[in-house]
Design brief:
275 residues; alpha+beta; GTP Cyclohydrolase I, domain 2; 2 domains; eight-stranded mixed sheet; two-stranded antiparallel sheet; 6 helices; 10 strands
């Protein structure tokens, strides 16, 4: 496997090179959560948006596109973000007959790295679309005191006795989420949304728990799987979806989703105003 380029000085490639892609096994993180790849308690995907895609047409004229890559949560590997950026840059001077051929090449290369087929959509930057705001209730006005800035599931365990008996269905979100890159320690900012049906989750406790990731070092995807597993373990909802919309770096944003639902429409995935 190609050496992980994260945290190292890198030169940007001028020739197409799929060998730049680096896969990171999901197995180790899932084992720490007590998860078995053969019986995961969730479905979902990691949805990446790419804003700096480009290649040359057969006449050498540049073509600029936007893209969306959908990595299934059942894939054996996630793709390290800097390696993906370097790989996409390696396509800039390669000629393709069409955008479809360009997308098919990316899909093939990403699928080899992830271990499963990866959906790739590309579209022009002038296609219509407006930034969106998250649905549901924002938690950020909760009057809470925060002391824990390393992940603390205890913040949820302590609140489980406050559950109301009535079944509640709601969508809650926060713009206060921050975690940190496990290699460079750079902050990663996100809007996190929790949708569920079940006994009511105390809003203050949920926000304090999400804030406790503020000094936690881990990959985006791993953070969201941990949040899903902790909420599922403490509150046992009838259904649960956890989504994070991270802000972009280098023309890419990452949007992990973990859910108990059977189907989600990733083609009409939102891009929030913060992104």
């Amino acid at each position: 496997m190609t050496e992980n380029p994260l945290g190292k000085v890198s030169s940007y490639p001028r020739q197409y090179d799929p060998g730049l892609l680096v896969g990171i096994s999901r197995k180790e993180n899932r084992e720490t959560l007590g998860l078995n790849d053969e019986a995961l308690p969730f479905q979902g995907a990691d949805v990446w948006n790419a804003y700096e895609l480009s290649f040359l047409d057969v006449n050498g004229k540049p073509v600029s596109l936007l893209g969306r890559f959908v990595f299934p949560a059942v894939s054996s590997h996630l793709v390290e973000s800097k390696s993906l950026k370097l790989y996409l840059n390696s396509l800039n001077q390669k000629k393709f007959e069409s955008a479809e051929e360009f997308a098919a090449t990316i899909s093939k290369d990403l699928g080899i790295t992830a271990g499963v087929p990866v959906d790739v959509l590309v579209f022009g930057p002038d296609e219509p679309g407006m930034p969106e705001l998250p649905a549901g209730l924002c938690l950020d006005d909760q009057a809470i005191e925060c002391k824990d800035y390393q992940v603390s599931k205890a913040l949820l365990d302590e609140s489980s006795g406050q559950l109301f008996d009535e079944i509640t269905e709601e969508i809650l979100y926060t713009n206060l989420f921050r975690s940190n890159c496990p290699v460079t320690n750079q902050p990663d900012w996100a809007t996190v949304t929790v949708s569920y049906l079940g006994k009511k989750i105390p809003h203050g406790a949920l926000l304090k728990y999400l804030v406790s990731y503020r000094q936690h070092n881990d990959y985006h995807e791993n953070c969201i799987e941990r949040i899903f597993c902790d909420l599922n373990a403490v509150f046992s909802p009838q259904f649960l979806t956890v989504e994070a919309n991270f802000l972009r770096r280098g023309g890419l944003d990452i949007n992990p989703i973990r859910t108990t639902e059977n189907s989600l429409n990733y083609q009409n995935f939102p891009r929030y105003i913060r992104q």
